[in-house]
Amino acid sequence: MTSQPSYSSGISTIPLLGDTIGDNLDRTAARFAEREALVDRAAGKRWTYGQFVEVVNQLALGLLDADMGKGDRVGIWAPNCAEWAFVQYATAKIGAIMVNINPAYRTHELAYVLKQAGITMLVAAPKFKTSDYAAMIEEVRGDCADLRQVVLLGSAEWDSLLARGSHGDPADLAAAQANLSCDDAINIQYTSGTTGFPKGATLSHHNILNNGYFVGEGCRYTEEDRICIPVPYYHCFGMTMGNLAATSHGACMVLPAGLRSGRHAQGRAG
∠210-213-214 over CA atoms, to 5°? Predict the structure, then answer.
């Protein structure tokens, strides 16, 4: 006899969402295409829902062209920035599992997570504060057998990833997205590791989308709201209770500060 998954939920007048994150974003964008989805104050750029989904889809197609797909681990190591959000939703669209990496990690912690999670692509800022991320990645890369690709934000590799996506076939993305279930694993978040090495928790679309959605319901979010997100994206507070609470209700995500390294994100200034 094979084991079967089971659900147990309390009584509620509001049903749980059965969407994948990509499908939920698409529905929101269809309803509120002209409303603002994301404002990156540090970059001086903003995107409507229509523009936001366009960039997410472009990046998703670029990831597919780079041989990323369902179940592959894509690490994200950067402070809050628009690109972090693009990676979050693009990986969800293709079923790749995004692995959140704490921007404060030192080299040994980075190496541990890269190997323990089996990360095959790492998207990272070139540096943050006094940490030279690019140098730290090169220091550990040789010991991480699964790591095939490193993409630094603002680099030629990042530009190439987006450019490859711009020439991709939308039908390929639609097929990948249609092959997903809300119960698929989509995110790995690590504990602080105060009693040893960090512990990775694997979460599904169903987990984090409903977490964000019901936080938004509790806050009574609507498409009229603008949500300031100063908390770190690598933590569930920022990416779930911030981003997913916003996009599940058509509200606007506002980054008050973040990565300042020239402007490599696509969007309109203002």
Answer: 85
- Side by side, the strands of the sheet bearing 119-124 are 149-152, 119-124, 73-77, 97-100, 185-190, 200-204
Q: What is the pTM assigned to this prediction? A: 0.91
Q: What is the domain-level CATH number for residue 241?
A: 3.40.50.12780
Q: Are 191 and 198 in contact (CB under 8 A)?
A: yes
pLDDT digit string, tens, across residues 177-214: 999 999 999 999 998 756 677 889 999 999 999 999 99
How far apart, in whole angstroms, are the C-alpha atoms of residue 223 and residue 205? 22
Position 249 in a domain: yes
Q: Do the strands 200-204 and 226-228 form a parallel or antiparallel pair, or are they unpaired? A: unpaired
Domain hosting 231: range is 23-192+205-257
Q: What is the distance, to the nearest Å, from the Cα of residue 165 to the centroid of all Cα atoms in its chain?
A: 17
